[in-house]
């Protein structure tokens, strides 16, 4: 039986990170400024932005929360242009987290989920041969949960009235 995500009950025990990760995630470079990074997060409705070099090696990670924290305080009496200038003058290399937890695409989803839970992080960049190949977020796990619930619903016997 296949569900919305394409997973079958039989394959569920063999599910890997590659099966549920977001492939080709939106990325930034160390030269990306705060304004550009915020636009990427807002436009694509994402909360985590991997920072890579030209060869797609993972250098760091910024979250939407990191980006908002790096902005000038909304309490400061700055004009819109002054605030924008501040965002353009600061690049991600100044705020990105460089000690990033990552996972291999062949790792089990269960191991990745436990890692996210144990370390209380919102995502795991997926790295293979030192290059970013995807990202695994809490939203991906919500998709798996929905699939499991659908499978359970479809497997339950119908109880007559």
From TrEMBL:
Describe the location of the CBS domain by residue ranges: 21-78, 96-151
Concerning InterPro entries, the annotation shows:
CBS_dom (IPR000644), CBS_dom_sf (IPR046342), Diverse_CBS-Domain (IPR051257)
Q: Tell me the keywords, alphabetical order.
A: CBS domain
Q: Where is the signal peptide?
A: none
User: What name is this protein filed under?
Assistant: CBS domain-containing protein
